[in-house]
Please model this.
Amino acid sequence: MINYPASKIRNITLLGHGGSGKTALAEAMLFSAKAIDRLGRSADGNTAMDFDPEEIKRKISINTTLAACEWKNSKMNIIDTPGDFDFLGETMAGIRVADSAIVLISAKGGTSVGSEKAIRLLKKRNVPFLFFMNRMDEPNADFEGVAARMRENYGPGVIPLSLPIMQDDHMTGMVDVMNRRAFSIDEKSGAMTEMPVPESFVSRIDALQDAVNEVVAECDEELMEKYFAGEPFTEDEFRRGVHAGFRDGSLHPIYVGSAYRNWGVEFLMNCLSKDTPSAGEKEPVSGSAPDGSTIDVAVSEEEPLAAFVFKTITDPFVGRISIFRVYSGIAKTNTTIYNVEKDKDERIGGLFYLVGKKQTTTDQVNAGDIGAVAKLMVTQTNDTLCDRSRIVSLPKISFPTPCLEMAIVPRAKGEEDKIMAGLHKLADEDPVFRVALNAETHQMVISGLGEQEIAVLRSKLKSKFNVDSTIEAPRVPYREAIRKKVKVQGKHKKQSGGHGQYGDVWIEFEPTETDSQSLVFEEKVFGGSVPRNFFPAVEKGLQDSIGHGVLAGFPVVNLKATLVDGSYHDVDSSEMAFKIAAHLAYKSGLPIANPMLLEPISTVVVHIPEDRQGDIMGDMNKRRGRIMGIDTDEDGSAVSCEVPTSEMATYATDLKSMTQGRGWYTIEHARYEQAPADVEIKVIQAHRHQLEVED
Ligand SMILES: Nc1nc2c(ncn2[C@@H]2O[C@H](COP(=O)(O)OP(=O)(O)OP(=O)(O)O)[C@@H](O)[C@H]2O)c(=O)[nH]1
Ligand SMILES: [Mg+2]
Model:
């Protein structure tokens, strides 16, 4: 493949709901461009884009995948993203490097949560997008109905530029609205043959051209004047207007076809290569210099190199492959470049272009283009690689924050380290999930966007690192506290042959006035009944004890202990004896000090479409949550609540099903509160059961 200049490169990202046909469309585009020689199907596990064993196994896309192809003297980098929201991070990476996007819509269902979400992300980043109405080969395809609904949802700029010609509920051909031409489509190959425009389409074409004129006139003063003078646009003007309208986000053309059958795909590609902006038309990107000042990075081969790594894959044979978009300058083989984030030089060995996993070597990757490099040492996704003559850090992908927490447990004893090391490596490929060892519960807790993401990670742990794991709900870190002041004795006396042991203390236990995680220890000993040098031992004895409460073994908080009296023995008293005495006092004091269980409360902000507010609040009620306030945000509503953390274990999954994946949330620990009696009983019973099992 030759190296194209930015003016001839288009980076196009495919977005849409899971199963809408993104991978199928990429496959058809690559096939049309002869970048692959047969049409694979994701259901058969043989597409260019879904090559990862996990994708083949699950028949869905998991990764953002790149494929380069050549089309009519220009280059298209097709970026296929997963539709499942568990892999939203991948989708965001795909959007980050897009010059324009194709949102897939089903001719049967219309817009879906996946397309809604994609459009919100695209608008946020000002990426121009068009629609491909897919599945026109299926019975009950309803082009007109769906197009009308999309216009309602996304405004008058949503205009079909190709129309299906239907015969008995079947798409048999297509009308090109801009050029007033019609084509029949060969059902098997998708090949198009020109035919006269059917009479019934004439007035429809007029109306659509009018609608386009109205929209594009807004983008160009000259066209505006002509439009108001009632003069028709020339074909060139029309095209120029469409290009400008698309670029500034006022026009969102709809194209029609079937990815699966390769209908309308070549037509779509022709329009893409004419109407969508090239990489060269991209506005400069604002990067930041080491001193914090802004540097405008323009798409230009003349400027020093600045490239952004948006995806990393780990190949069992090649090792780490970093996929990057060059924003300015030229990346060349056998050079050294500087990784800004890691403050290290990296050696660029071989560069290549990708078609899925297939590599084609190249000596350089130009500004505006996307390429890949293997075996970088320290570079990860979100890093900028640049020339030392202009050190700049390009804006990062702000990956979604994981909210579903699960404990991950090895099936074979003692393989915790293997899991940790494996996950650490897998973080290269999936920068979204987190893993941490919880010091209190001794669980390894993995957090992700959903069950599917975690399932994929476990599956990779098995296939790549040969370690089998299961997941459990993470243990809730309860606390215990007392409500009453008590005064108790703890006496440790042992006489066994020679040296005895003697420690005797009287301790007052009471709740602290303000919240305190650690023990508040005081002494009010009169007349030296306990010598001063044993005070630290008493405190240490209590300190060790509060790690395990008397109700269910959880740490005790808000506890004040005052050493008030005791006795000692000249010979037999020791630090150890006083430590044990303090522990005995603790053990007899706390059960009679009216102990209670405290449960963690989290602050949760749920972002949902407004029409789901009622359901979400009702559900929060069932979880013992309190609604603290409702705000509006770009997703609809943001409902803030305080909820017992224990009630949130499966929320990521539940919210997904309540909102068909529209909702998302953040969760943060707020404080501890007394647990209601039924919860306390359950937790105590579970603890007893655990002790029995351990015995
Ligand atoms: N009949 C018909 N089936 C299609 C069409 N496009 C895709 N499919 C099928 O629908 C299924 C899902 O298609 P994919 O291309 O994998 O969908 P996707 O959007 O990539 O899905 P994710 O990557 O999981 O988000 C596959 O079995 C395809 O063969 C179409 O136009 N017509
Ligand atoms: Mg896919």
